[in-house]
Predict the 3D structure of the following.
Amino acid sequence: MAKAKKAAKKAAKKAPAKKVAKKAAPKKAAPKKKSARKPNAAFMKPLMPSASLAEVVGSKPLPRTEVVKKIWDYIKKHGLQDSKNRRMINADAKLKAVFGKAQVSMFELAKIIGGHLK
């Protein structure tokens, strides 16, 4: 009996056999739906910039999206983003005429530009 108890203890001490994880079959991606989304016509309508804004973006009628893009190109080309707070834009002489102040937030940009488009 003593030998049977020792054998039982040894069997209990042995670690159970490790289970081998089965690799899951790769799932097939669901086909992507093509959205029939059209750009908003109000954004794409060409608008005439004011004289002060025309010095920065040009005098041709442009959609709002293009005007904002050209303003950002101008800001980056001339290094007008504040070095410490990148959300702020420091105005040079041309932009000061558009903004009306020396520094504006990037979040105010679209609002300010909207007042210069007709």
Notes: DSSP finds six helices and two strands in the chain.
